[in-house]
Design a protein that fits this description.
The protein has no helices and 17 strands. By secondary structure, it is mainly β. It is globular, with a radius of gyration of 16 Å.
Amino acid sequence: VYPVPVCVPQTAGKVFCIYSSDDGAYGTPYYGDSWNGSAWAGQESVTTIFSAHTQFGLVQDGDAVHMAFEDVPNKKIYYRKRSAAGSWGTEIELTSGANAANWVPTITLIASDHVRIYWASSSVLKYRDITAGSLGPLMSYSEATDTLSSGLAVQVTPSGATPLLVYTTKAASPFDVVALRQNAAGTLFWSMP
């Protein structure tokens, strides 16, 4: 068993962590626990959808936590938010109508209660914004020359309004590293192959 924890800081010395109880096979939900500065609050169920141990992204927004995760067997991407008070919202499918295998979700905070979730889908990067619980349109950026590999990460500037998306292409070594920068509206304004 390897729990693969990911933790985010919150306010006033608090921390929230998400992990799986994966035994190495698909089919385990995610769990969470909150550190209040002196003790753990106790395990809580985070997802009802079963997934793999590493296919999720997590970002903090004050004491709220936003999560993007993959339903690995069904190749769908979901979003879920934990409020500052500690209650979980519903699981929202982001890939509805995408009609393709989707994997490796990552998430970034654009502004308070505004997140952008990216994921790979064949040679296309898909993304969606969620603002105050409202799901934005499904958007995409095509990688015209190469197939996306499994590496996908978002690096965020201090303001959070212009996320830098870094990903790799090609199916085998040597891989290419590509960096794209978008503004808060999702418009691509810088790319480095």
